[in-house]
Write a structure and sequence with these properties.
29% of the residues lie in helices and 13% in strands. By secondary structure, the protein is an alpha/beta fold. Helix 9 packs across helix 10.
Length: 437
C-alpha cells in the first residue's frame, strides 16, 4: 500500500473547498436545476430541515437529516413523465422530496484530524480542533476514507473550521513523522509551539462548518501523486482488473424513455448500443447524469419522452411527431442555470424540435440529415478507452471531461466490454503490489 494513503489525512484535501450550503428537500425542481448547474460535482446532496435550531446537532442527528443525492438524470426522467410534459410549470414547482431517491448511506461524516497521540506540550490543539481524543478519531487517514468510498459512499462530510484551515498542512507533516520525531526528541518542539500556538484571543468555540469531498476530489488528489502509487498508474486497466462488465445498456432502436426504468446507482449511466454482425455490442452514446449536467432540462425531457435512444444520443434534425400531442410553442424553456430562456422574445420553445437544443451538440450541423453520423456527436459522444489503456490515462480522461466513468472497448470495431468508474479506480490504487499482474 502506498505510504501516501497512511500519512495523508482527510483534512488536507479540504483546503480550498467551499463551505457546504444545505439544499433542502422542500425546494422546487426549478431551484434544483439552478443549484446543479452552479455545482462543481454534477449532483447535490438533499437535506431535511433541522427540527430545532437551538439544539446542538451531533453526527448521528446530522446524517439522519441527509436524504440522498439528486442528479440531472433524476430530474430529466421526472420531467419526461406524461403529466409533467402536459403541465411543465407545475412540474417545475414540485418539491425535490418527490424526486430524490432516499439513500442516506451515500454520505458519511469523517474527521479531518489524525490518529496519533499528541505530546503533552501540544494538547492545546485538541481544543482548537474540537477533537476530544486523537487516539480514536474515526476515519481520519486517507486510507480510511478510501475504504468508505469503496463501499459505496459518494460524499464525505468534513468539518471545516478556521482553526483547521490554519494547521491542516502542518498537521500532515507532523503525522508523517518528520516533525513528530523532532518533538519527541525535544529538538524543535518549542519552535513549533511558538509558531502554531494560537493567541489568547483565539475563539475555540467556533460554530462548526462543513464541506463535502467527492470521489472526484479524491481522484484529483491521487493523480497529483502518481509517483507514490507506482507501478499501478502505468499498469493497464485489464491487468488491474479495473474493468467492470456489469453495466446497464439499451438498444438504439427502443424508445429512450425505457432507460428511466432501469437507472443504475453507480455510475449513473446507460449505454446506448447497436448490435454488430458478430452479435456483440457497439456503443454509440450514453444517457447519463454527467452528460445532462448543464443541458436544457425541458428539451432533454421532451426528447427522452419522444425519441428513440439512438435519436436521443446521436441527434435528430427533423419534425418529430410527439407521442403526447404537445404544443412546444407553449412550453417554457429552462437551461442548465435554471433560468427561463427567451427565443425571439417569446419565452417559448421552437415548434420544430431539434435535439441540439438539449445542449449536447457543439459542432455545426448540416441541414441535410442522416448522411454522416459523426457530425452529430459533439458533447454526446461517449468517453471511451481501450482495454490496454493505463490507469493514469483513464483517470486523466475522467478528470479532463468531468466524467464519472469511461467505457472500455476492444478491437478495431470498438466492441463494448465494460466500464471503469470511480469505484474501480479506488479499488485498483489500493490493491496490494503483489496482486498487480
Amino acid at each position: 500500500m502506498a505510504s501516501v494513503f497512511v500519512y495523508q489525512v482527510v483534512g488536507d484535501l479540504t483546503v480550498g473547498k467551499p463551505e457546504l450550503v444545505e439544499f433542502m428537500e422542500t425546494e422546487t425542481v426549478e431551484s434544483a436545476i439552478k443549484a446543479i448547474g452552479e455545482s462543481t460535482e454534477g449532483g447535490i446532496p438533499v437535506w431535511r430541515k433541522k427540527p430545532n435550531k437551538g439544539v446542538h446537532e451531533n453526527s448521528e442527528m446530522r446524517l439522519q437529516r441527509f436524504v440522498g443525492i439528486l442528479n440531472p438524470l433524476d430530474i430529466v426522467a421526472f420531467l419526461a413523465k406524461d403529466w409533467c410534459l402536459e403541465d411543465q410549470e407545475k412540474a417545475l414547482k414540485t418539491p425535490v422530496s418527490e424526486i430524490v431517491f432516499p439513500n442516506n448511506s451515500l454520505l458519511k461524516e469523517v474527521d479531518p484530524a489524525t490518529r496519533f497521540k499528541l505530546p503533552a506540550n501540544l494538547k492545546w490543539l485538541s481544543s482548537v480542533l474540537s477533537i476530544n481524543t486523537f487516539d480514536a478519531c474515526p476515519f481520519a487517514r486517507l486510507i480510511d476514507a478510501l475504504d468508505m468510498l469503496k463501499q459505496g459512499v459518494k460524499r464525505l462530510l468534513v468539518p471545516k473550521s478556521v482553526a483547521w484551515k490554519c494547521v491542516s498542512k502542518k498537521f500532515s507533516i507532523l503525522y508523517n513523522g518528520k516533525w513528530l520525531k523532532n518533538i519527541e526528541a525535544g529538538g524543535s518542539a518549542n519552535n513549533f509551539a511558538n509558531l502554531s500556538k494560537p493567541s489568547s484571543s483565539t475563539n475555540v468555540n467556533i460554530e462548526t462548518k462543513f464541506c463535502c469531498l467527492s470521489r472526484e476530489d479524491i481522484i484529483r488528489f491521487l493523480i497529483g501523486c502518481l509517483g507514490a502509487l507506482a507501478p499501478v498508474p502505468l499498469t493497464s486497466i485489464s491487468s488491474l482488473g479495473a474493468i467492470s462488465p456489469h453495466y446497464t445498456s439499451i438498444e438504439a432502436s427502443v424508445p429512450a424513455i425505457e432507460a428511466t426504468q432501469k437507472l443504475p446507482l453507480d455510475p449513473v449511466t446507460i449505454a446506448v448500443v447497436e448490435h454488430t454482425p458478430e452479435g456483440q455490442y457497439k456503443i454509440i452514446g450514453e444517457i447519463s447524469a454527467c452528460k445532462l449536467w448543464k443541458c436544457d432540462y425541458l428539451a432533454a425531457a421532451y426528447a427522452l419522452a419522444n425519441l428513440s435512444a439512438g435519436q436521443f444520443v446521436m441527434g435528430v434534425e427533423d419534425n418529430v411527431t410527439p407521442r403526447h400531442g404537445l404544443d412546444l410553442g407553449a412550453s417554457p424553456r429552462v437551461g442548465g442555470d435554471g433560468s427561463a430562456a427567451n427565443e425571439s422574445g417569446s419565452g417559448k420553445l421552437r415548434r420544430k424540435f431539434s435535439s441540439r437544443s438539449i445542449g449536447f451538440f457543439s459542432n455545426a450541423v448540416s441541414p441535410s440529415v442522416g448522411h454522416v453520423r459523426s457530425m452529430y456527436r459533439g458533447r454526446s459522444a461517449p468517453l471511451t478507452c481501450k482495454v490496454n489503456s493505463s490507469l493514469a490515462a483513464v483517470m486523466a480522461q475522467m478528470l479532463s471531461h468531468r466524467a464519472t466513468h469511461v467505457w472500455v472497448t476492444e478491437g478495431e470495431d470498438d466492441v463494448l466490454v465494460g466500464v471503469v468508474g470511480y469505484g474501480e479506480i479506488l479499488h485498483a490504487v489500493t490493491r496490494p503490489p503483489q496482486s498487480v499482474s
